[in-house]
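Q: Given only this backbone (273 positions), what sequence would you predict?
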């Protein structure tokens, strides 16, 4: 199979700095390569990781926190590839869990060591693509969506907020969740004074025509779930913009813009296409 990816971020219309970050990474047992925000490659001999992170904290700490989160990924995942190549497979869930714990420890240390980093924390939503599979890990209120080739939109992750819990219990709907005053109050995140880290983990078997969307809450603030399907699959909108991530972010900022907005779109195709 081949992967085609697109990334875009915007500070929004209110905030001066952008505390979001996104990562496109290709790696094997020997090296790690940072990828551009737009690209295409096969999934044969190398793995791919895409991630978005929303930082939090005073001064520039939030911006720094999200970058700490994505940069830690480059150190943890290549060794797992090497181990799998020689038949030593610790399990991707174990690798991803340890990665999240590593980031949490780093942010907690920085937040407790420097006054300007007090309260530093970050959300993190990550997709790890191997031949035939996408493994995901998540904590916070950024999101990962799955748009299967057969149609529809499925949110793979759960928001680590009380409002997210209310919605999962059927006590409020999507429109009520968006208007709820506590929608951005996180119950779990990396760093930010949280004691425990328990990332959500999962896997999806991929096939040509599938799409995946990673986005921060600034995108969710501006668009409803059904609109993701529209903006990613409507032929007229596709023809108007070659970068679907930019298309989503621009629409979200136009409708809301109160927060930084970041999106990554990954499309699965055939290697002979």
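A: Predicted residues:
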């Amino acid at each position: 199979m081949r992967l085609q990816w697109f990334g875009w971020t915007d500070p929004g219309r209110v905030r001066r700095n952008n505390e979001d970050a996104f990562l496109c990474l290709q790696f094997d047992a020997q090296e790690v390569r940072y990828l551009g925000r737009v690209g295409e490659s096969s999934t044969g001999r190398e793995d791919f990781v895409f991630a978005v992170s929303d930082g939090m904290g005073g001064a520039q700490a939030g911006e720094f926190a999200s970058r700490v989160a994505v940069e830690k990924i480059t150190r943890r995942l290549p060794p797992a590839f090497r181990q799998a190549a020689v038949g030593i497979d610790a399990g991707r869930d174990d690798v991803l869990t340890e990665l999240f714990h590593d980031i949490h420890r780093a942010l907690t240390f920085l937040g407790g060591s420097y006054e300007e980093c007090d309260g530093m924390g970050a959300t993190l939503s990550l997709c790890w693509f191997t031949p035939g599979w996408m493994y995901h890990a998540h904590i916070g209120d950024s999101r990962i969506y799955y748009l299967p080739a057969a149609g529809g939109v499925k949110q793979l992750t759960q928001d680590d907020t009380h409002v997210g819990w209310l919605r999962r219990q059927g006590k409020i709907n999507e429109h009520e969740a968006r208007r709820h005053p506590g929608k951005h109050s996180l119950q779990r995140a990396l760093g930010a004074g949280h004691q425990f880290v328990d990332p959500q983990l999962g896997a999806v078997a991929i096939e040509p025509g599938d799409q995946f969307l990673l986005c921060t809450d600034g995108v969710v603030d501006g668009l409803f779930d059904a609109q993701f399907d529209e903006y990613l699959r409507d032929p007229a909108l596709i023809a108007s913009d070659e970068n679907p991530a930019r298309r989503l972010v621009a629409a979200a900022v136009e409708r809301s813009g109160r927060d930084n907005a970041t999106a990554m779109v990954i499309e699965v195709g055939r290697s002979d296409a």
